[in-house]
Specification:
By secondary structure, the protein is mainly alpha-helical. The protein is built from three helices and two strands. It has helices at 27-35, 40-46, 52-66; strands at 7-8, 19-20. The N and C termini lie far apart (34 Å).
């Protein structure tokens, strides 16, 4: 999935955090909800202004970002 068609970032919106286009819904909020056990259907019901593809774009974006990082051993 090309998340760039669904997500955007601007210094004027949430201090530049990545958000779903045409919303103020941050990618990290969606990921947090998924991580806390909400299903995609639960999120869509709670946030009717977004679509399933928006949530998938958030997941795809996070995968892309994480694939470029490494975990430092402590």
């Amino acid at each position: 999935m090309d998340y760039k068609t669904r997500l955007t970032s601007s210094p004027d919106i949430l201090l530049g955090k990545p958000v779903i286009k045409n919303t103020r819904i941050a990618v990290d909020l969606i990921l947090e909800r998924l991580g806390n056990g909400m299903s995609i259907e639960d999120i869509l019901e709670a946030t009717p202004s977004i679509e399933r593809e928006d949530i998938l774009a958030c997941i795809s974006y996070s995968s892309d970002v994480i694939s470029r990082e490494s975990l430092l051993a402590s």
